[in-house]
Amino acid sequence: MKKIRILGTNLAALAGTIVTASSSATDWPIANLKTIWPKYVHRTLNLGTPDFWEWDFGVAPSINYIILWNHNFQSTATVKLQADVHSGHWADVDLPLQYGVHWNDHVLVYFFRRPIANCLYWRVTADDSAPANPAGYLQAGYAYLGGFLQPAYSFKEKGGGVIDPSTILLSDGGQPSTNEKDAYETYDYDFSAATPADLVTLITYFKSLKKGWPFFIIEDDSYPLNVRFVRFRTDFNYRPFVAGYKSYRLEVEDAR
């Protein structure tokens, strides 16, 4: 059975987390890894061997998921995840703890069954020089490092739609003029029940993220690339179900 996961606590976006990179192109700063706008990315100045993105948390975090959104790595790139207690003493994360590395042409997902909780410093390295990435640089967008909520009960039904925010204006003679914008999708997840503990976490997520800050949803825990970068589009409401349990709906939309 599909089990949804909600990634709502992004330690990489905290104000105290220091993010650095191997290089930065003008107008494409490293701060874009924390931005809420998906089209904002960081770009390296050129192709390094390798390039890297590094996070200094100050205190050891608990990490299950690492996600890089809107990357431009080729399938031939050599990409590695590294973590260590001390800066500059990099070691590959212990692979037996690792459930898997998953990527496609825009998202990179690392997942650990058991959280890694003793490393202050994390980085992703990428060597995309053989053959050389035709862009002449590497890029990465919003980055997530943190844990996840997997509700005890997954959603029973899923709905949604496609929204076109374009507008059409008519001249005095009735001729249309279109201001075209990118269409985006909405997703509605109906849950029959939430345990009291899960409800507390969901309320905490909503109070923290509100409707403006994006987060990730993985609809099926057996297929990590089924990941959506979303934000809440409505208030979070729940209803009585039975014996302290609540039913609820998550209404979200593509972050844009």
Give me a quick take on this structure.
This protein has one helix at residues 196-209, and strands at residues 5-7, 18-21, 42-43, 51-56, 63-69, 78-84, 91-92, 98-103, 107-116, 121-127, 139-140, 143-146, 157-163, 167-170, 176-179, 184-194, 215-218, 227-232, 238-242, 245-254. With 256 residues, it is mostly beta strands. The longest helix has 14 residues, at 196-209.
Mind summarizing the main beta sheet?
7 strands, antiparallel
Which H/E pattern describes the elements? EEEEEEEEEEEEEEEEHEEEE
How confident overall, as mean pLDDT? 89
Q: Which spans of ≥5 residues are poorly predicted at pLDDT below 50?
A: 94-99
**Helix amount, in percent?**
under 10%
Query: What is the CATH topology classification name of the largest domain?
Result: Jelly Rolls
Q: What distance lies between the first and last C-alpha atoms, to the nearest angstrom?
A: 30 Å
Class of the largest domain, according to the CATH hierarchy?
Mainly Beta
Radius of gyration: 20 Å
Q: Architecture of the largest domain in CATH?
A: Sandwich
The backbone outline, from C-alpha atoms, is globular
Name the CATH homologous superfamily of the largest domain. Answer: Galactose-binding domain-like
- Secondary-structure content class: mainly beta
What's the number of helices? 1
**Total number of β-strand segments?**
20
Q: What is the domain tally?
A: 2
Strand content: 35-45%
